[in-house]
Amino acid sequence: MIKNYIKTAWRNIQKRKFHAIINIVGLVSSMAFVLLIAAYVWQTYQINSGLRHQDRQYILQSEYKKTGIGLELTTVGALPKALREEYPHLVANYYRIDGLTCIISNGTAVHEESVSLGDSTLLDMFGFELFEGNPSKALTSPFSVVITESAAIKYFGKKEVLGQNLTIRNFAGEKHDFVVTGVLKPTSQNSVTELNAALSSSIFLPIASEAYFGRNVDNWNTLWIAGFIELQENVQPEQLAIPIQNLLRQHANEEVATNLIPQLKPLSSYYLNDNKGAIRQLTHVLVLIAGFLLVMAVVNFINFTVSQSFTRLKEIGVRKMMGSNRLQLILQLTTEYLMLVWIAGLGALALYPVLAPLFESIMLTALPDIFELPVSFFVYFMLTVFFLGMLSGLYPAMKLSQNRLLESLKNQLTNIQQKHLIRRILLFTQFTVTIVVLIAAVVVSRQVDIFTKGDLGYDKDYLITVQAPRDWSEAGLHKIELVREQLRALPYVKNISLSYGVPGSFADGIQQVQKVGSEDEVDALMITSDRYFSDTYNIPLLAGQFFSSREEATVDNSKLVINNKAAKALGYHTPEEAIGQQVSLFNNRFTGTIAGVTDDFYANSMHSASPPVIWFSINNNNQYRFLSIRLKAGSTFDALTALEKNWKQLMPDAPFEFRFMDDTIKNMYTVELQLQRASQIATVISIVIVALGLIGLTALAINLRLKEVGIRKVLGASFRQIIMLFSKEFYMTFFLAVLLGCPLVYTLMDKWLANYTSRTELHLGVFVLPLLGLVLLLFFITGGIILSVVKANPVDSLRNE
């Protein structure tokens, strides 16, 4: 019996190829997108799942009652180790990272790398395996190093490098050989080796080498250490609250002990919840978009199937007359509809390897290979396909099978008004979803344009940043300043500035600034730089000078520069009023004079408002990380060639690895860019589904009323009258969908935009232009099909009457 159902279903599909193709294309396009989104979401939720005991592991972060003390991402360096040693019944293991950036070389291979200076517990705690080396001793000796397989190939051209040397330069400009004691096997994506964009390492050094880098991880005043702890079984993180406070009171200074509130973040969900849960929110939105598309495809399928009812009535009547009962008819029709959905599902699976590279390039993220996905993934997908098949096919099958025998043979449908109402409801749902997806895509694109093309308060064009080799001695600062002046003399270079941070990577921290004699404090972002920063970034100077004029040979180290927002927060009514006033920093340990006031600018991303800023002269601490280079317009290639050539002559041991500020800014909005591209893909697919549905429904409606069209033409009906006859139902349904869709998408997007201080406006044009595009699509599809019928000779449709 089942075999007969399948054969009959296949015969009916072949008989109605046009309608079958429309249904399958709509379903395949939506299912393929859903499959790609599902793979991306599955992969995202797998991050950190491969770590040993990840369900008991936590990242120690910090919340401070008073700003300007430490970083939220990190913790007190000595704390994780002390918890393990003094409370072993609570803490089973720990690991700490002091993130460094060092120049590493091996003969001709020279690179600037992010390096993790950490505990020897790395391999055992997280279950990482070595391709070569002894896991228990790999990170115990000074001047040893563990590297990944990719790093081994990068520096040595092979994986078998045990005992080889890498030369690593410290912050004093000294060099020392480190012996490779282990080669790490590839690991699944995790938040240990890739804590964030700034701390993603392929080079791991033991804490035993910390003296060479001038670090002291075990110091209770070291506040920039990324700390991980693993709890004993059945221990809850709340049980560490009192032990942590006890340790801080016993060992940390009073300022840290009274202001630090440690936060234990579960490692298992850290990636999803980091950056205010941006990744988790993105996955939710992508799932919602995929759900919308799936609903559209299913609605299109049901609508099309119900609309085909007239063409199947005689067939149903004959089957009933031959003895088929209602259950058999339902099974036969459901089998046919299930087969269509299954073909679409298999087509989506077949398209996955083809579309995955395109999806990766558009979404800027890698997808797992189809063979890397677990069996459960495909089981859920197949169950979803089966459910959609039943959902899509069962209702039309039940409606057709309940028609009375005599009416079926007469080609009449029982409850025809109910049938038209259902079709309109389904079409209304489809139009509403399309309107929501299309307008949402427009809003997201406009918001991303504000981020990437908006006024940042500085000029990002023709601006590159280069990480400078660190030598924070007096001689090292003097040398890099000479390099700066020699590069500035190149004809393609407009200006150069030396600083500790650059937009998107300001790591100087928040400092509390107060006017001398006042107790009111202002939280301000501190930027350590030279006197050329504002000129290089084209930040307007509102009053005074940026540390000093160019005519002055040296910079007075007591001079400071603030932005307008900081000036107002300090109580100065005008930028000019702030010039010459004294302010204190570092809990009154430093007093400086305001030399200049700049206009406000976005120091980091536009997710939050531009902050108060205070510039601190680089000559006070000799610490720098970047050279920002302003190129002259129209000479980018020649400028980069000249810069690289001179760089190698001036600093042969340091790689010339630059980055355009445009790219830096785009990387600040990776989540928004992914959302923009996903919404654009969804828009295209939704329009394709709607177009296919309109083509099918219009063609079907006309085929069922060909004789009526012929009679109307003979009686003198115009093209406009005929087109209105067939399309008024579509336009009326579309108008009702606009009444629901516009308020709905306005509410959704207004809520989304509330997350940003700089946001696009939801003005009338945002809604009118997409709606006008949909109206034109509706007109051309319905009008084009109807025109082909109107042009036909009415004799052809009436000759059988």
Automatic annotation (TrEMBL):
As for subcellular location, the record says: Cell membrane
* UniProt domain ABC3 transporter permease C-terminal: residue ranges: 288-401, 682-788
**What is the predominant subcellular site recorded for this chain?**
membrane
Return the InterPro entries for the record.
Answer: ABC3_permease_C, MacB_PCD, Macrolide_Exporter_MacB
Tell me the superkingdom of the source.
Bacteria
Q: Where is the MacB-like periplasmic core domain?
A: 21-241, 435-641
Keywords, A to Z, come to:
Cell membrane, Membrane, Transmembrane, Transmembrane helix
UniProt name for this protein: ABC transporter permease
